[in-house]
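User: I'm curious whether this sequence folds into something compact or stays loose and floppy. Could you predict its structure so I can see for myself?
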Amino acid sequence: MKSYWLKMDDHHSTLELRDIAQPTPGPRQVLVRVRAAGLNRGELIAGHGLHGSGAAAKPIGMEAAGEVVSFGAEITGFKVGDRVMGRCPGAFAEYALIDGREVMAVPDNLSWEIAASIPLTFLVVYDMLVMQGRLKADEWMLVAGVSSGVGVASMLMAKALGAKVIGTSGSAAKLARLDTMGLDVGLCTRVADFHDAVMQTTEDKGVDLVINTVGGSVFAECVRSMAFEGRLATVGYVDGVLQGAMDIELLHAKRLTLFGVSNKLRNADQKSSGVPGFKSHILPLLANGRIKPVVDKTFAFDDLAHAKAMMESNQHLGKIVLMGA
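Assistant: Here's the prediction. I'll summarize afterward.
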């Protein structure tokens, strides 16, 4: 079968399309014929920490949607031909294996490309907003870098949960599009200058939850913008800045909570722990249209290089998806 592999150093990455053997599912795995797979910045962009410098090439792709081909002896609840989606390694391939704990049925109203944009991104957002972020209806949330895949998904889920959202982006055009999708306040900026606008919007209260997809260059400004007992999630650092000043007095006085969101060091049990809650809490909102994922562009399977280039250019809004071979 066809499978994409990636070799990366600190500054460059090289894609390879290989012909490898079709995988065989283990007892707790499902083999899927991949119909679409979502791109994720952390895996494809040099310097994001998911590849060791000089490491050997590895199969890539981290989330997919497709049809069940076969499954292991301990898998129940699925049959051959079922439409499913899930996080899975090596998703940029004709076939991929999904851990049985991660498999989710695709709602009937979702296309392949929309389904492929959900598993990794929306489970990360569920972790940030619900499991750790404890976001409630009528609370304010700030997304630094709201036009990214994670940023858009965060906005959509927060609105479905009844929260109010402020988002920053360097693109006025992207903010205008997000305004039609429910963004309450858009701030056109790429730098740490949004505190005053946030405080004015929230009547000097500050935001209850911050999603920082940008990195260290806006970290201190995010902390300044938080409300009493506010929470801050760090989920990315597209700016490449891995350090940020910390106002310890503010952390102490406001009883703030700071947390990171990454699957890099989690084992399979830890990664899958949020799936049951996501299925019961968020999947119905996707099925009934309360949450409508945004796919900016799809690419043919043979065109992954151009899909990767589009992601690197930061011109997209929401997700980029690679269609199946």
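Summary: The chain is about 25% helix and 30% strand. The two ends are 10 Å apart (CA to CA).
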